[in-house]
Amino acid sequence: AMDVFEQNWQSIVQTIQYGGYADLIDQLDEKMNRLSHIPVKKSPELVPKILLTGEIFVRRDSLSRQSLTEWLAENGFAVICSPVSEWIRYSDYMIYTDPLWKNKPFSEKIRFHLRQWLMKLYEKRLGSSMSQSRLVDSRCVDIHHIINTASRYLSPDLGGEAILTIGSSIVEIATYVCGVIA
After folding, report:
1. Sign of torsion over alpha carbons 90, 93, 99, 101
2. Are 32 and 133 in contact (CB under 8 A)?
């Protein structure tokens, strides 16, 4: 299974490096379909999931994680790492809620909203392709829901990842994961 995964992953990486968006979508649709046919020990929907969240570098750095994800996998858990898109969405949220936003030129605001719309469109399409594998969730980050949830415990005016860690943890544990590691 890992050999099949690695072969498919290398094809996807090459397409990211040398192809365009349409090529990537075609490649993802094909490769995720292949991955969906790999026999699994347990249906992915039945595997208990743990959210790994917190400081973006720490959660994505293998040395910082100290083989935690592998150990959890060996013990029957799937680890879901908070996506990088969460930070991107949060950065945009900070721009939009900045008091100086109202003074921005109209054309800049239009570009900002168009970029937001395109990012959401691309994120949904990529998520849809990847979810065909049955190993990836197609949900998009809802930054407003995360911040609203956390704002009962931490002021949104305090910039930084703390509000994301708190909000994501509460949102996910209530609906999708059985545990959170921050």
Report:
1. positive
2. yes
C-alpha torsion angle, residues 65, 175, 169, 124 (rounded to 10): 70
SS3 state of residue 61: coil
Alpha helix (H) residue ranges in the chain? 2-18, 21-36, 56-60, 62-65, 68-74, 84-97, 106-131, 143-150, 162-175
Neighbours of 105 (CB within 10 A): 8
Q: Around Cβ 130, how many Cβ atoms within 10 Å? A: 18
Token digits for 137? 């969730």
Place of tokens 């994800």: 69
Q: For 76-113, write each residue's pLDDT tens digit.
A: 999 998 888 899 999 999 999 999 998 999 999 999 99
